[in-house]
# Entry
Amino acid sequence: MTSPIVIRVKKKRIIELLASGKRTDGRGPTDYRDIKIESGVIERAEGSARVLLGKTEVIVGVKISTGTPFPDVPDTGVLTVNAELVPLASPDFEPGPPGEDAVELARVVDRGIRESKAIDLKKLCVESGKLVFVVFVDVYILNHDGNLIDASAIAALAALMNTKMFKYEVVDGEIVKKPGYTPLPMVNYPIAVTFAKIGDKILLDTGLDEEQVMDARLTMTLDKDGNVCAIQKGGGSGYFTKEEILDATKTALEKTEELRKIVVKG
Amino acid sequence: MKATKKKTKKETETLSKKKPETLVDKKGIRLDGRKLDELRPVKMEVGVLPNADGSAYLEQGRNKVLVGVYGPKEAHPRHIAQQDRAVIQCRYHMAPFSVDERKSPAPSRRDIELSKVIREALEPAVFLEYYPKTSIQVYIEILQADGGTRCAGITTAALALADAGIPMRDLVVACAAGKADGKIALDLMDTEDKIGDADVPVAYMPNLEAITLLQMDGNLSPDEFEKAINMAVEGCKQLYVKQKEALKSKYVVEEAEE
# Structure
């Protein structure tokens, strides 16, 4: 943990810089750092992607197994998202079961995929009420340099788009593998953008320095049609005004389109 | 992930029977007779727990929420203490009997996330810098849930903090708006939330015009989102009046009959 005094000094410096229109690394307020996406990095996984957002690094692996559906949606496949803040990624991460930050990260990524209906889960039903495919999305943070949410959401989407399912036929209620693979039935492409408020300025894609001093953050996930499908405010003891939020919606609309082009093209 | 329990055929039938076909009728009246921009009936009371430093109880529709506040007191475990301010330890917890199917009392991932966002919704209101190295504990118990419990929890927790005499910039009040049958509606109850298309919980400090919690799931166009957030803020303002009444009513002395 960085001491509160260091953070106070940092905050003063960052706010001074922002007042003259600058960020610590020279970017503009809505500029993202360089994004590198590499798909299929883990051969053992059905789908995977490694994403570098500046120095923030995330791997997402997708595994697929079979299971029983939830009784209220018997003809729908199951999606589960988990996130690990791996201790090697930051001096602030510790071994042990997921803490509230990891749980929040996983649930924000989950909400984006689920609410945008990115995967056509009905197509993952083998036998209604009995047998469906279960898609496990595991987010693995390898280096923490800020904006884990956006990096993880991009990596999750890239990994899902990279996912191959084996072909199968059903014989006496059992799945029998056939040669060949099909892609996951992807029908939407949600992108998350996270705003940070520092003083009276609002920035996108914060680095770790900025994240340590931010007053609050706001994540908006938009689908391919420009509809909002998930929002999460968090990250500190600050707040947003209604006007700031509505402005952010407009910026999010432009920015998610821009980012989607990078991810969906691969 | 496996479903924990298979429902018997009969149970499934009664569940599907419960599922209404429309949430909003042609006149814009909802299942429980409310208009689109109408809150559920609300009852609030402070100072309900003798042992707690501050407490409050709230009923909003069929939601029943009890909050106890302890502190500021020495932070425990000590490593959570901050040198320059107090920390809020917040636990959102649902009673096992609060929902249709018994909920395990162990914290779920949802509970962990909600405890975090509720804490972050309350923090901007409290003068934490007045009490360095201490902890303020906020325990939220959902005794009965019917949709919108995180908002009900925040509204009640702010009352309990005020009841504990902890200095605050403003009360925090929370309310959700959402989309049911394609229409934007205020304060969704459970059925509307489950079948509806979107839910936008908002926490608000009316005097500062500050939004301290904002979440959303579902699908809304940017215009619908704007409408929902405006409606939720208006709902918050109505609840704010009742919050202040509840705080004052604790100190009203009934005149003794001569």
